[in-house]
Amino acid sequence: MKVNLLGDNAAMRLFVRVWLKMLALAVAVCTLLRVALLFNQQTVEVDFTVVGWLEIFLVGAINDMAVMSLGYLFLWLFMVLAFEQKYRKPYGYVVFGVMVAGFLYTTFAHTMLDDYGSVAPLVGSLLTALFALNFGVKLFAPRWRRAMLCFGFGAWLLTYVSVIIFNMVSEYIFWDEFGVRYNFIAVDYLIYTNEVIGNIMESYPIIPMASVLMVVCSAVAWLLFRGDVRSAEVLVDGGWSWRGRATLLYVVVALLSFGTLRLTAQLQHTPNVYLNELQANGVYRFFEAFMKNNIDYKQFYPTLDDEEAKQLIYAEYGSTEDNRRVERGDSVEQRPNIVLITIESMSASFLERYGNMQHLTPNLDTLCRRGIVFDNLFATGNRTVRGLEAVTLSLPPCPGQSIIKREDHANMHSTGRMLKEQKGYDVTYFYGGKSYFDNMQAFFGSNHYAIIDRNSYSADDISFENIWGVCDEDAYRMVIRELGKKHTADSDAPFFAHVMTVSNHRPYTYPKGKISISPESKVREGGVMYSDYALGKFFEMAEREPWFENTVFVITADHCASSAGKIEIPLDKYRIPAVIYAPNRFAPQVVEKTCSQIDIMPTLFALLGMEYESHFYGRNILDEEYPERAFIATYQDLGYLQNDTLTIFSPRNSASRRSLSDGVKQYHATKLSDSEYRMTAVERIDEGIVRRAAAYYQTSYLWN
Questions:
Q1: In this structure, are residues 504 and 530 in contact, taking their beta carbons and an 8 Å threshold?
Q2: Phi, psi (degrees; rounded to nearest 5) at 380
Q3: Helix (H, G, I), strand (E, B), or coil: what is residue 57?
């Protein structure tokens, strides 16, 4: 006996026909995207094997169909719920009442959407209002139901087509910036919708682009689905039989699709990162990143026995629980003012000192020649919060969300807290944007920093701003003014000012007439050059201040400009400038040791001869016994560089690990030039380095 799942029901045939068309569209659009990505500047020089090409396009198409099948959820619900019975008394009134109550609750009560923030509460309110209004009109005006059904079906189909096509453009733009599919950065940006949308609006001709894309989406939807929209009435007339069969079909295919995605994900762990990314589906990558934004270290990374890991750290630092010890200076203690400047996205590769011949950073290059410069210092990550975490907490980077963005981050062992409580410093965080961004306000405010941000500026203080905040010149003028007040108010209390800039960020806009690159060009080189120009102006102003002679300046970057490369963590992309500048206090010096962003502030404290209780993982780079190493990470991959060996921990269920080194990757790094490394996979994993790296990351996770 044959079972005909489709049967002869017109509604069932419509259900399947629309599904197949959506699958074909998704595969076609995603294939076109892969072709475009292959010709992107990030990828164009990458070579793939025949097997690699098959994985990119064949496995990629399978992933696309699986994601589209899972995404068919909303159309399935719309179609199977298109029946008249739900409008009959009293059920219709009950359903309408529940919908209105849902709208009122979402709009006026405190919900989880409010905790999420940004535009989420508004979106939730609008959606519940729309659903309630739609149902109410159909309930009280039955003659409009069928017309509204066709219109609603068409609207859903247009939405699906638009999501598929707009996502293609969005993924291309994201790849152009980061060299990967959607990851935790994309998830993170959802929280700051205003800034992100503003950034996009200022970076691209978004209105013309969106207008053209909407015309394209409308045309595609009309060509593919105009007949299906006209026949939408069959959904009402169909009985419960087809709805049951449609539900069974969707559930089975959805389960198979989810299993397929889990299976094909195992193919995305090759040494060629671009191959992994190209065969993947961006929407599914986004879902994965969303689910993994908080990662349990012990569940997903190589782990030692807790006591063994602690003992390794105790031996390394001469510390006790929580890595606590007393750091003693080798000289008479000094307590000068300290100004720490973290420049947005300032990679070492932009400096002439490291081989760049575009003359973008004359002021920063000059500071490097006149100060103590660290030529082989690596950023801990590729986001601002990672850089702030490194110089403020002096900890190895954690997987998932930065500590700065966590809820349990108050009263940590920060550099500001140490200087304030142990040395009597006045501690301030300066930011040209709104400090709610990336949770800076909550973090610095709960860790003993006063905060001066965009809200502190009057209209007269601002000569130029974009979506990220005031231009660097305006920010530096505010710093000069506020530090002048502190010096005047209480000259006996030294100040510590941490300044975070914003200008070197897409859309790379800045005041006209300042540098040779027009702001209208909106290119990264312009952002770099203007940031350097503003830095030079800051020092011109600072040198005229009475507090200048008694101030030490630390200039570095929050993170690198781009982190895309052929392996998970390309060393050359994570190298950043770092210089300690106090011309009347410290002689110029070039330090070539491999070191980390977390070492900057402990090195400064050692130079100043400070004795203090420390919980920092950072070390004094200038110490003869300094162990050359660096911590480098993405939001998931944790890197540890030691003795020219880069060790990478990637998330993997610990239960499946056969040994500590199982799933660990190691590369030998050969420096070819100031801006280029050759990375070669090692034949035999160095277990000693793996254990050392695990001890660092594991204990930092346990204690922080």
A1: yes
A2: -80, -20
A3: helix
SS3 356: coil
Domain extents for the chain?
Answer: 10-83+146-184+210-291, 85-140, 306-703
3-state secondary structure 575-613: ECCEEEECCCCCCCEEEEEEEEHHHHHHHHHHHCCCCEE
Residues 427, 629, 560, 282: what is their CA dihedral angle, to the nearest 10 degrees?
Answer: -120
- The pTM assigned to this predicted structure is 0.73
Q: How far is CA 290 from the centre of its chain?
A: 11
In angstroms, rounded to a whole number, what is the distance separating the alpha carbons of residues 173 and 204? 10
Please give, one letter per residue, the 3-state secondary structure of 444-503. Answer: HHCCCCEEECHHHCCHHHCCCEECCEECHHHHHHHHHHHHHHHHHHCCCCCEEEEEECCC
- Return the CATH fold of 306-703: Alkaline Phosphatase, subunit A (3.40.720)
Alpha helices in 179-271 (DSSP H): 184-190, 193-203, 206-230, 234-237, 240-264
Report which DSSP code applies to 280: S
Task: List, for residues 81-94, the tens digit of each pLDDT value.
Answer: 887 777 778 887 88
Tokens of 435: 């400090």
Residue type, 4: N
In which element (H, E) is residue 299 found?
A: helix 297-300
366-406: pLDDT as tens digits = 999 999 999 999 999 888 889 999 999 999 998 877 888 88
